[in-house]
Amino acid sequence: MSAPEKKRSRLGEWIDQRVGWRKLMHEGLDEPIPGGSRWAYVFGSGLLFLFIHQAVTGVFLSLYYVPSADHARKTVEFIQKEVSGGSFIRSLHSYGSSLMVIVLLLHLGQTYLYGAYKSRRELLWLLGCMLFLLVLAMSFTGYLLPWDQKAYAATAVATNLISEVPLIGNGLKLFLRGGTEMGTLTISRFFTLHVFMIPAAIVGAVMLHVFLFRRAGAAGPPIADEQLKKLPVEPFFPPQVFKDLIFGITVILALMLLAIFRPALIGPTANPADATYLPRPEWYYIPVFQWLKYWQGPLSVIGIVVAPALLFLALFALPFIDRSPERRPLKRPFALGSLFFVFFGLVWLGARSHIEDQRDPSVRAKLRAQDDAERRFASEPFVPHVVGGEAAASARMLSPAESKGALLFVSESCSGCHGQDAKGGTGLFRLPDLDARYAPEQLKALLRTPNVAMTEGGMEPLELKGDDLDALVQYLRSITQDQ
Question: What pLDDT score was predicted for residue 2?
Fold first, then answer.
């Protein structure tokens, strides 16, 4: 043995005496797998990898993020537009949350299909269902943190639905919001849940899940027990580790391609006064969004509380309901049919929601305008938050009606084409001196029925009426007087 090899051997022995790393490596890598490694087993390791990915990218984002109503959206915009690699990291984090939901659904589906919740694995299934709820909670709490109009509106709807839960609904809504309205306390609580409490619960659940998995052992392929006992046993390392590594690399490449070619967007600042915004949740909540449309009025408690409670109760109780040792999918027609029924139902609800949005011309136009405004806003240059100075003084001089008009100017996506102060720039359209060119009634008529030049530039008729339209006109005439 050469001198360097002897040094490495002595160092390894020294560390092993103090840490016991050889035993740890044996416990972690020499796990026996009945029937050998399979690609169907990569989802568990993939979930652990994605959780670490989300934690690492989340730490980078938290270095700049400020959880307050005054600064949340501006700090996310700063990350997106000014921080070197910020848009890439945020996009990785955003797409990673969606991919984590997909992989978790695949893992649960594969476990259910293989009958791997049977034979002393009941606690493993219960922990897996709990992790499913925790991942959905992570996605829900993280969705609000950018504090743009899309996130605000969707979270407002979701927290209002929570209040429908009997007895504890209103209290839970007040707890999540930090009051009756959404604001800084809401962001602070969602941030605490998203960054500290839920990840800590996930870490604890994962550790217990791994411990119980090692105690029960790998379930193996879904075949008869007699055949399973005859299968050769293969260690976890290296064959399954290699498959897990290939899956992890594929996931990373997919996330990188999405982050590069379709970066995550951020829309205008959340505006509580905008009652015209049409909220739509993330894709994995769209089936739930559509489902709730069918339960209105007194029946809402059935769709919001009773039906989901029964579904999750059946999901958690599955190992205690299905006591048969049979694991082969084709020998379990009811289990196989139930899986496809749920999958088909989710796909149908999601497709139905999209069809209804596209079928209604006003809804389709509004959603398209919201998406266009979000893309335009994301392409605008970053404007630092002004605490004092001329801009702040000018804002303080607005009348109450003009202040309301300023909010409507943003909520109606006018700033997406004309900039925050209507001065245009970087491909945006500068507004002319409207005060000198149009009387209030003329400007109202023009907003309701844009001329040919305005239509060609992308302007759509405004649907504001009454005081809202008056306030917007007053604001437009006030901000263009000195341009």
Answer: 63
CA 477 to chain centre: 40
- Quote the CA–CA distance of 159 and 176 in Å, as a whole number: 8
Distance from C-alpha of 139 to C-alpha of 58, rounded to nearest angstrom:
12
SS3 content of the chain, % helix, strand, coil (to 5): 70, 0, 30
Axis-axis angle for helices 122-144, 198-216 (nearest 10): 160
CA 239 vs CA 33, 230, 462: distances in Å: 10, 20, 62
263, 91 in Cβ contact below 8 A?
yes
Lookup: tokens for 56: 């690492």
List Cβ<8 Å contacts ≥24 apart for 15-18: none
Query: pLDDT (tens digit, 9 = 90+) per residue, 213-247?
Result: 888 888 888 887 778 778 888 888 888 889 999 99
pLDDT of residue 389 exceeding 70, the answer is no
Distances (CA, A) of 250 to 144, 253, 263: 29, 5, 19
d(CA 432, CA 436) in angstroms, rounded, equals 9
Cα–Cα distances in angstroms (integers) from residue 274 to residues 153, 181, 282, 361, in the given order: 9, 14, 20, 21
Residues 109-128 pLDDT 10s: 999 999 999 878 899 999 99
pTM given for the model: 0.76
Nearest to 462 by CA among 476, 449, 443, 473: 449
Residues 8-51 pLDDT 10s: 677 777 777 777 767 777 666 678 888 888 888 999 999 999 99
Beta strands in 211-361 (DSSP E): 233-235
Which residues have C-beta within 8 Å of that of residue 9, sequence separation ≥ 6? 1
